[in-house]
Recover the amino acids of this structure.
């Protein structure tokens, strides 16, 4: 008995003594992070950065790098090396926040709807990363109806123009389709017969109460994107009511000396592929759940072999409606 | 598809039964039947062994102490035995069907010798079935000295406890909700007190505990991983008895006795913790930290039994138990640039109430029936209120964050059962039917939050629609001997009506014990089990806060096909060895989709949950010493359990939340003399898996804004349950001092839980303000206990 008891106690102490320390292997911690979204209306571009172990204290915003070899090829044997563009601060003519650089661009390769693209990336001291994605086919849409209702908020002495639009599109049958809708504003002024365009760098607020919407891509408490699948409309035509808002005074501040001015509401209707949708869905969930300790952790979607992040694509169509802005500024 | 499969099962069982039923009839035989009871109390003994020594044929008493045995005419010798009781040898001359009620006298303890769990030779024990004598349960050293049914069960091979501080029993890779917990045959949905540290079963009131972890008899339906059948004492019909104990955190007492001697008896037992009664005044006085939880639980058992006639008995049972917890946490952090004040108040509780009326009726000497009418009610509630104020002086800003959550759910069952035992020649045939009307409110939640930092706020209330269902079962089971082979074959047909959907499931069961020489037996079984309820366990939330979901139009019933194979070897008079292996194939297990939680989501259940498959397999070994001054066992389990869902974890297979590869338990009891005994239990297990982000990287793409706003950090993990907690181990030690004077006996027990103060993490996380490191949260350090128990 004494012998057995002693043995048990000794085993206990031995087991407690030989415990291994939990560490994250560097091969897992430091990898290429791809944030690549191919769109049919611009040349291919991806953002590369480096991941860090969760325990690292380095600045995550400074993990981008310039010494990668990035090859993008399609299923038609077209291949192009993407070029690093240093200090990229202008993209589509807009200013970029410093922590979100699109740093690798294709010179001429514009992604085509329906094509499959493969990305091969190698960088010193990091495992190679590869990913493949297929762009969906373009889905056309119409802005079937639109009107403006002016909302006056007396307390704030602010007048807001709410624009209500009906979008109509035909969901392609027999395949599962995913969609993303954004809105951005352009302000046009006419001076001596010349038109000057200023495009807002932010996506505008977009609202929709249709139960079809699955992902409300919030930033703060404002919805900036609507994503959904066709699971309830499969193969059918859909009329979707959305709304946005703009203020006259904003444009007047910029164009107060113009002969005339207009606001252009650009609806960006993207047929996105499944990877894109899954990434949006999980990222939105991740951003929501991190706000509260009551929520479970979220596994953000990734389709990068040997790395992290996402490589996805969209076939994009943009259509606009415009409204004249009064010549008298509103104060 | 399902119908065709069911027909297939029916055909197989029918053919099998057709082959074995025409067993030879005995020429001149009569039936001896009756009850086996305790001499001092009249309490019926379950699973007492009644053997005809002339033929070697034997039966066990049923749940009501009844037996029926066919013997040849003339002289016969009957041996009746039960662990802890003196054996009885009866020399009989049987000329006709005879009723013989047998009383057993509690055994006089032999100096320095203890005998445990020798119900029957190990070679005759059913595969995957564990009988745990109450005496054995009381000998195991446990937390706070509170002897507990679950703590004993968790030390058995193939059975794991959850994390410390979490509820549950995890049997052979199944979830906690896959167990069917029965008190006197009535289901109990949350059998835990104090976050699962104790079960709701008061050991003073418990008569018998049987655990089936495979080879399920056909009479059971509803648990795909195990059936834990706990029978409560009915009450002494002979004399008054009082038993009780006073422990560090709770006390209990049981009183039983006759109302009309040998005819009507009662039993009442109660238990209450006094954590709240002690802690609340100490908190008020500033002696105990404000954050110490205020906790109370109680349970109450009331039984009444009445002998209507020699052939008819009536039983009434009532159980009620409830847990209430209040936690208040305050946190303050200040430095040169930042001040953080946090306050959190949590209230939660749950309770079970069950009641039943049972009527036993014998028809002749071979047919025994039991009619049960019962109800079961379970309710669960949570409320959390949190507030945080963060002031950043260098930025001259102040953030406020608040959230509150209220959640409640309940289950109501109305049950009726009719069971028959028919003793026919070499066959013990059990058949019956039952029906349960169930009303399930899976959850009403109200969640509010407001957060300056993330500029977000919300106020949502959500009620998962109440589900009303009816489950009916018909079963037939035959236990018989075919040559030397003991076979139990049967089937359970369940029909479940919910909404406009009907699920019909055929559940065939078969098991066999094949003796090989005298001391070795090989055993095998195959069974299919179905359950119509799912327990949604929150991996990231309070552990006892589990929600039940019904099978419905959206969710199909969960089923498991299980195969068991093993052998038992009576090594010598003192030692027995057994080894069992199993393979389980789960279908329609339920899981929460990525990032979803049933408590806080307003989406319909089919958007939060999905069904998948699972696999579990393993091998279990037990070496047990049953006689001598030192008794005990060594169990080792090697196991693996995994799950696969269509979308969860991107469709990749991942480990089950309570997948434990290695488990080793060593339990020893040593009797120095009649006055002093010592016990020790060492528990070792490889670490449970946990989901932990390993990598951080930028989102950094224009998802929400063409300028890239919203660029933020993703904390990424490759797979669910990608991280293993450190190994779990602890040593519990106890010493008991026994004293008996006449009718009065008392035991003083002292001991140490977690004797070498091992910090066993319940979870790990990345902590630290500037430098993140993996930190562990442990719950129970070394805890001494003293318990004084008495009986008279």
């Amino acid at each position: 008995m004494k012998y057995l008891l002693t043995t048990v106690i000794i085993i206990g102490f031995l087991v407690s003594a030989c415990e291994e320390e939990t560490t994250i292997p560097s091969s897992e911690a430091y990898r290429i992070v791809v944030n690549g979204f191919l769109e049919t209306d611009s040349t291919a571009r991806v953002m590369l950065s480096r991941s860090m172990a969760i325990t690292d204290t380095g600045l995550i915003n400074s993990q981008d790098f310039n010494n990668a070899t990035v090859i993008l090829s399609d299923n038609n044997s077209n291949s192009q090396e993407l070029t690093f563009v240093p200090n990229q601060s202008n993209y589509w003519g807009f200013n970029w926040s410093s922590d979100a650089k699109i740093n690798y661009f294709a010179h001429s390769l514009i992604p085509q709807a329906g094509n499959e693209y493969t990305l091969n990336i190698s960088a010193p001291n990091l495992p190679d990363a590869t990913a493949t994605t297929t762009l969906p086919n373009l889905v056309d849409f119409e802005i079937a109806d639109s009107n403006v209702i002016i909302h006056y908020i007396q307390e704030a002495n602010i007048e807001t123009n709410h624009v209500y639009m009906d979008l109509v599109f035909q969901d392609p049958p027999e395949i599962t389709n995913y969609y993303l809708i954004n809105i951005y504003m352009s302000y046009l002024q006419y001076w001596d017969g010349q038109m000057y365009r200023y495009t807002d760098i932010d996506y505008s607020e977009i609202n929709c109460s249709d139960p079809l919407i699955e992902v409300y891509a919030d930033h703060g408490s404002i919805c900036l994107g609507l994503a959904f699948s066709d699971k309830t409309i499969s193969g059918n035509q859909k009329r979707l009511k959305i709304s946005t808002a703009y203020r006259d005074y904003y444009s007047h501040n910029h164009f107060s000396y113009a002969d005339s001015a207009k606001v252009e509401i650009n609806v960006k209707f993207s047929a996105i592929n499944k990877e894109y949708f899954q990434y949006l869905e999980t990222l939105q969930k991740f951003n929501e759940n991190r706000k509260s300790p009551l929520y479970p952790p979220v596994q953000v979607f990734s389709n990068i072999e040997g790395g992290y992040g996402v490589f996805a694509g969209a076939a994009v169509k943009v259509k606009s409606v415009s409204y004249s802005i009064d010549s008298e500024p509103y104060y | 598809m399902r119908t065709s499969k069911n027909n297939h099962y029916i055909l197989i069982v029918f053919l099998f039964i057709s082959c074995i039923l025409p067993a030879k009839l005995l020429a001149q035989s009569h039936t001896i039947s009756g009850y086996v009871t305790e001499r001092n109390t009249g309490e019926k003994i379950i699973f007492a062994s009644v053997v005809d020594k002339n033929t070697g044929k034997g039966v066990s008493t049923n749940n009501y102490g009844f037996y029926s045995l066919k013997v040849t005419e003339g002289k016969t010798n009957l041996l009746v035995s039960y662990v802890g009781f003196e054996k009885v040898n009866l020399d009989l001359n049987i000329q006709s069907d005879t009723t013989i009620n047998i009383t057993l006298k509690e055994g006089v303890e032999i100096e320095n010798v203890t005998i445990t769990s020798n119900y029957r030779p190990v070679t005759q024990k059913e595969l995957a079935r564990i009988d745990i004598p109450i005496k054995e349960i009381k000998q195991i050293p446990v937390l706070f000295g509170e002897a507990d049914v679950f703590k004993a069960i968790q030390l058995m091979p193939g059975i794991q406890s959850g994390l410390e501080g979490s509820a549950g029993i995890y049997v052979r890779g199944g979830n906690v909700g896959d167990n069917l917990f029965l008190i006197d045959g009535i289901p109990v949905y949350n059998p835990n007190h104090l976050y699962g540290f104790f079960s709701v079963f008061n050991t003073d009131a418990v008569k018998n505990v049987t655990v089936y972890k495979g080879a399920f008899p056909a009479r059971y339906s509803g648990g795909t991983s195990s059936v834990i059948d706990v029978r409560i004492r009915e009450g002494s019909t002979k004399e008054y008895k009082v038993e009780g104990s006073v422990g560090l955190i709770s006390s209990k007492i049981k009183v039983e006795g006759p109302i009309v001697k040998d005819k009507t008896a009662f039993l009442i037992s109660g238990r209450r913790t006094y954590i709240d009664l002690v802690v609340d005044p100490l908190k008020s006085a500033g002696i105990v930290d404000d954050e110490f939880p205020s906790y109370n639980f109680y349970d109450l058992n009331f039984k009444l039994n009445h002998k209507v006639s020699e052939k008819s008995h009536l039983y009434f049972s009532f159980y009620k138990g409830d847990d209430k917890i209040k936690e208040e946490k305050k946190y303050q952090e200040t430095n040169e640039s930042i001040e953080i004040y946090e306050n959190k108040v949590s209230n939660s509780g749950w309770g079970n109430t069950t009641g039943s009326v049972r009527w036993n009726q014998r028809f002749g000497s071979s047919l025994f029936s039991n009619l049960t009418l019962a109800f079961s009610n379970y309710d669960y509630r949570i409320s959390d209120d949190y507030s945080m104020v963060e002031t950043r002086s260098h930025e001259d800003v102040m953030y406020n964050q608040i959230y509150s959550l209220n959640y409640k759910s309940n289950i109501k069952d109305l049950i009726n059962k009719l069971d028959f035992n028919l003793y026919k020649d070499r066959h013990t045939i059990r058949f019956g039917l039952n029906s349960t009307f169930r009303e399930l409110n899976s959850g009403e939640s109200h969640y509010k939050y407001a957060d300056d930092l993330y500029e977000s706020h919300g106020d949502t209330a959500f009620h998962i629609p109440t589900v009303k269902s009816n489950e009916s079962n018909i079963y037939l089971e035959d236990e018989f001997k075919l040559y030397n082979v003991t076979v139990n074959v049967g089937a359970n047909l369940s029909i479940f009506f919910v909404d406009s959907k009907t699920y019909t499931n055929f559940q065939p069961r078969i098991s066999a014990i094949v003796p090989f020489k005298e001391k070795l037996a090989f055993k095998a079984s195959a069974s299919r089990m179905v359950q119509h309820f799912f327990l949604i366990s929150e991996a990231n939330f309070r552990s006892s806060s589990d929600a039940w979901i019904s099978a419905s139009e959206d969710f199909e019933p969960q089923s498991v096909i299980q195969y068991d194979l093993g052998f038992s070897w009576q090594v010598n008079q003192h030692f027995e060895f057994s080894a069992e292996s199993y393979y389980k194939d789960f279908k329609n297990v339920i899981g929460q989709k990525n990032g979803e939680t049933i408590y806080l989501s307003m989406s319909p259940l089919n958007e939060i949950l999905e069904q998948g498959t699972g696999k579990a397999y393993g091998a279990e070994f037990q070496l047990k010493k049953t006689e001598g001054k030192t008794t005990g066992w060594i169990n080792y389990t090697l196991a693996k359990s995994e799950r696969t869902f269509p979308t969860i974890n991107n469709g990749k297979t991942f480990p089950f939340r309570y997948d434990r590869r290695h488990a080793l338990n060593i339990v020893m009891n040593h009797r120095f003399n009649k006055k002093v005994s010592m016990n020790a239990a060492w528990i070792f297990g490889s670490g449970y898996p946990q989901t932990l982000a390993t990598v951080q990287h930028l989102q950094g793409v224009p998802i929400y804004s063409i300028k890239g706003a919203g660029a933020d950090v993703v904390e990424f993990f490759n797979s669910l349950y990608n991280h293993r907690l450190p190994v779990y181990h602890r040593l519990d030690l106890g010493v008991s001092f026994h004293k008996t004077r006449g009718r009065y006996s008392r035991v003083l027990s002292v001991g140490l839980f977690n004797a070498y103060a091992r910090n066993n993490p319940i979870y790990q996380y990345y902590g630290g303000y500037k430098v993140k490191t993996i930190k562990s949260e442990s719950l129970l350090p070394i805890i001494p206990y003293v318990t004084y128990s008495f009986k008279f």
